[in-house]
Specification:
- The complex is a heterodimer.
- Chain A is an alpha/beta fold.
- Chain A has helices at residues 32-44, 60-69, 89-103, 121-125, 131-140, 155-163, 185-188, 190-196, 211-214, 220-228, 242-252, 260-274, 281-284, 291-297, 306-313; strands at residues 6-8, 15-17, 19-22, 49-50, 77-82, 108-113, 144-150, 170-174, 199-203, 234-238.
- Chain A has one domain: TIM Barrel (Alpha-Beta Barrel), CATH 3.20.20.100.
- In chain A, α3 (89-103) links the parallel β5 and β6 (108-113).
- Chain A is globular.
- By secondary structure, chain B is α/β, with parallel strands linked by helices.
- Chain B has one domain: TIM Barrel (Alpha-Beta Barrel), CATH 3.20.20.
- In chain B, strands 3-4-5-6-7-8-9-10 form an eight-stranded parallel barrel, surrounded by four helices. In chain B, strands 1-2 form a two-stranded antiparallel ribbon.
- The relative contact order of chain B is 0.14.
- The chains are: A alpha/beta, B alpha/beta.
Amino acid sequence: MAAIPLRQFGRHEVRISALGFGGHHLGDAPDEGAAIRLVRQAVDGGVTFFDNCWEYHRGKTEDWMGAGLQGVRDRVFLMTKVCTHGRDKALALRMLDESLRRLRTDHLDLWQIHGVSCENDPDLFIRKNGAAEALEQAKKEGKVRFVGFTGHKDPAIHLKMLATDFPFDSVQMPLNPFDSQFHSFEQQVLPELKRRGIAALGMKPICGHGDPVQKGVLTGEEALRYAMSLPVTTTITGIDKPEALQQALKVAQGFAPLQPSAMQALRDRCRQYAADGRFELYKLSLKFDNPEARLAHRFPLDMQQVEVKEMLRMSDNSGHPYPPVK
Amino acid sequence: MLGATGLAARGQSGAEVPKRPLGRTGLQVSALGIGGYHLGSADSDADATQIVNEALDAGVNFFDNAWEYHKGLSEERLGRALKGKRDRAVVMTKVCTHGRDKNVAMRQLEESLTRLQTDRLDVWQIHEVIYENDPDLIFGPNGVAEALVQAKQQGKVRFVGFTGHKDPSIHLKMLSHNFPFDTVQMPLNCLDATFRSFETNVLPEVNRRGMAALGMKSLGGSGELVREGAVVVTMGLRYAMSLPVAVTISGIDSLDVLHQNLEVARDFQPLSAGQMQTVREAGRFDASDGHLELFKTTKKYDGDLGREMHGFPSAAELPI
């Protein structure tokens, strides 16, 4: 078995696997046991970067990932995200403690601001009592090693976050052949990160839920190869079942980047679909904006979203006098 | 300024809705226009007819519509209401090719004329230019821009334009083709002023080119600005009507709404520059994430036909 290449994390002498394990899809595994097995198999396969988020499946994916990483925590670089969406530092620090508890660890390797997708998020982030202060404090207290932010909406908002000159260690963004020619993070944000020595983390290599793969525009393998061939530290891909893990490992183990001509051929094939953003709904609709972001910014909720259903279920009358003891 | 018809049109509330020039067309249009989509949402055909008649009597002469509104019902209702009064109205409708070719456009034009019971439109606009590649498709070979030219030549439409609610940069891309549009329609309200702003980015350019600016979504499209307390109805409408536009198109689905809007529009006096600035500043915080201008930030206001032509999920599958 060839190893997954390790790449340097921005300006730091830390190396992480070129393939990252996406936390959201872990919540789609049939049960905790299956999730634990997926995490273990990924670690054994050479994946060292694990992505998660306070609000994914209302905590379930952090819980399951924490269970999966028990005993191997020190072999991985663990990231989760905080869901302030413009709200205060105190909320951020409460979320951090919950994340640490669920992930069964005393520190995160990386803590990122989740879902920076509104024009005013940068202003709300770097204000008195804003989440920026929480990142600084958590770092000082040793609860997190590095900090960053993520978002899938608009390169201009990413650039506005960078213009705050907050000392981010990493920035996460959607990177795929469609993005390369439509409101492009690849063109507008990647070069700026390189210039600043910030680790670039790619996500949505197959556009989130694989729409262009289902429509036959390109294969999952081609899409992942494209994303991993960009100048990024890692490419985070959603893993919900063993087949998805095996497919990703097949690309990542012994990975050699595509030639520029092959990259261009993929861009060309995707051009007509990239032109109106039909496969990048995260840029043009609220589909990928979770309820915490919508509530904080007073956008309408999507009652079909898994996290919304979880929130509603929390108010169900269980018939028991106390919540279940975990 | 009361002409003979003006005197007759005076209702119990007095003054008429003022008229303004429609760009360089030579037409005079009322500062308030009746939105066609909401005519289709009115409770009954009779209600729609009464809305149109009362509006005409108050001096409103600009009527908006689109081929795709309520599968033709909006055009049919307007056509019926204007029977015998067609010459008192400036009738606009929109063509809904969404990237398809000239022939589709010409077929839709014939259907619109039939439904509207007229042999000529005053204004024919390209509907819902909201996808990044729309300008390329519109001006591509055999695109809908050619249909606008042909329809004008054939005398089936007097003036042409386009409309969209998504992004000022797409409007500017349309204008950069230097096509002789007579009208350009866009969302204009007191929150737009400080968020992805058509007012700042598009309106001056449209006026510089001598085109008529048509404002819409003065209250957010479905009254979002009012419902969430960003502005009261009268001030929201006054702000939009005080901008350098020919007409502010307002969705009116009941007589109550018509009366409320006429209250503002009759004998309309624009806000002063200072008052405009106060309203903008008051809305700045609510504007700053776009949660009340959902037509810019979500899929909510994007029609199903356009979605289908561009390969997007339907409104049922992806409401916002």
